[in-house]
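Hi, here's the filled form for the chain we discussed.

Project: internal
Contact: R.S.
Residues: 289
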Amino acid sequence: MKDSVSIVGLGRVGTALAVALQEKGYVLKSLIDLDASALERARSLLGEVPVSSSLEDIAPAQAVLITVRDDSISPVASHLRRNLPQTLLVHTSGLHPSLLLGEGPRLAMHPLQSFAHVKEALENLSSSLFSLEGDALGLEWGMRVVEDLGGRWMVLEAAQKPLYHLAACIASNYLITLLHEALKAMEGAGLRREEVLPGLLALMKGTLRNAENLGVPRALTGPMVRGDVGTVKSHLLALEGWEDLGTFYRFMGTRTLDMIKEGALPTPTDALEAMAELLNRGSSRSGGR
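And the returned structure, exactly as it came back:
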């Protein structure tokens, strides 16, 4: 029989892990959340598992997962440590170290994945990379669980976690920011958001497939890597009077030129210099749109 697990926090991450662990044969001893709707969702997905809105009702288990928001991890862990001092405590923050869990068996186990909904989270877990950071007992448990879930794991040091988490935010959260800015430009051209969103999503998916197959930066396409100076100039002319999107375009363009140089892509040097001059010249002007 697999280990027994209790879970505190039944948001998207906690609920998805509860369902996945139960499917893999782990015994769910208790599920805790303050939100009545989260408890009801857990009942509908997991059957006859004890649920409660009080930490006092936590059932002893071989591991207790703390899947609450980052700011709540420490107070929850302090309460659990007082009552279950030798129990393995596990939190799922990508930023905070396992030491936040206090003295005793500990593990930080973060799935490098986007959890917008429970259904999608369950579908993505088996292909996810998990970062593990903790003591020897915690790491051993985490490796076994991740492999049971069908994922992959890597071990981090606590000092690596801030930049690791920052990178995850850039790759996931800022991808939506990029899409938002692209939609703003489409709307500026008089196109309807709902009309162009499917096309932009298809473009982004194709780009991500290229990155998977070719790597970064070789997957880069478009006017900058081709050295089309005139195209970049036309973009900047279209952005005159549109300060916020212009600033965004110039920043991303400059970072793209840096990537082209660092990656030694075959863009003509004179074109790189001309595009850089255009971007820098544009940054000295401001508009009011």
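Let me know if anything looks off before we file it.
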